[in-house]
């Protein structure tokens, strides 16, 4: 690794120490379905977001709820204290497209239809209002 790359990598690593996030990779649902759930909680206070996810009928909300709990635990671990009510907010959350598995389904007259089994990656950042 060259000096320029190493310096950039160290700078990126240093900035990550002040950010509190959790990542969930290769979730077996389409990014479009996951974005619908993620858009519901963007910018919310974490306790309210947990309640919203708990009572949502979407299947993807269970994965996002688990991810949010992980991000809260990461914040508490880095700050050596428990989060108080109304202190933490979902600052940034985004969904990226993961790998797509291509499968074939039998179709009439000897043809085959392509099935695309999509997956996604979710990244969720939490923080306090005054810091961001």
Structure description:
It contains four helices and five strands, in the order αβαααββββ. The chain has 132 residues and is of the alpha+beta class. It has a three-stranded antiparallel beta sheet. The longest helix is centred in the middle third of the chain and has 20 residues, at 60-79. The chain is flat, with a radius of gyration of 19 Å. The two termini are 33 Å apart.
The CATH level-2 architecture is identified as Alpha-Beta Complex
- Give the spatial strand order of the biggest sheet: 1-5-2
**Contiguous uncertain segments of 5+ residues:** none
Number of strands: 5
Return the average pLDDT rounded to an integer: 94
Largest sheet: 3 strands, antiparallel
What class, by secondary structure content?
alpha+beta
Q: How many domains in all?
A: 1
Amount of helix:
40-55%
SSE arrangement, N to C: HEHHHEEEE
Topology:
Elements: H1 3-16, E1 20-27, H2 31-41, H3 46-54, H4 60-79, E2 88-97, E3 101-106, E4 112-117, E5 120-128
Antiparallel strand pairs: 1-5, 2-5, 3-4
Helix pairs in contact: 3-4
Describe what is shown at a glance.
By secondary structure, this protein is of the alpha+beta class.
List keywords for this structure.
single chain, alpha+beta, 132 residues, two-stranded antiparallel ribbon, 41% helix, Ribosomal Protein L22, Chain A, flat
């Amino acid at each position: 690794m060259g000096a320029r790359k190493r310096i950039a990598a160290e700078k990126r690593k240093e900035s990550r120490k002040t950010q509190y996030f959790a990542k969930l990779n290769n979730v077996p649902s389409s990014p479009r379905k996951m974005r619908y759930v993620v858009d519901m909680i963007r910018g919310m206070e974490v306790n309210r977001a947990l309640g919203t996810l708990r009572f949502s009928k979407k299947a993807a909300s269970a994965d996002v709820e688990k991810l949010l709990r992980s991000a809260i635990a990461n914040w508490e671990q880095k700050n050596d204290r428990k989060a108080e009510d109304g202190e933490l907010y979902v600052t940034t959350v985004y969904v990226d497209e993961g790998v797509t598995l291509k499968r074939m389904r039998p179709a009439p007259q000897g043809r085959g239809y392509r099935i695309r089994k999509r997956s996604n990656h979710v990244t969720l950042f939490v923080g306090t209002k005054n810091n961001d």
